[in-house]
């Protein structure tokens, strides 16, 4: 059985790496300003990757 799932969310550290930022502070700022969407689950945020692609101009 193959795992053909598309990743829908990522942690802020992963998003920072994707966008080329050196730390997660910028990602948290983007979440607070509403430029990218995220949901808090427990003590961590899960960032919506579709909103990251839109922010980066890929969609």
Automatic annotation (TrEMBL):
Is DNA-binding one of the keywords UniProt gives this record?
yes
Keyword Ligase among record annotations: no
Could you state a single Gene Ontology molecular function term? DNA binding
InterPro entries recorded: HTH_17, SinI_DNA-bd
Its keywords, alphabetically, are: DNA-binding
- Annotated coiled-coil positions are none
- Taxonomically, the superkingdom here is Bacteria
All copies of the Helix-turn-helix domain together span 12-56
The entry's protein name is DNA-binding protein
Organism lineage string: Bacteria, Bacillati, Actinomycetota, Actinomycetes, Bifidobacteriales
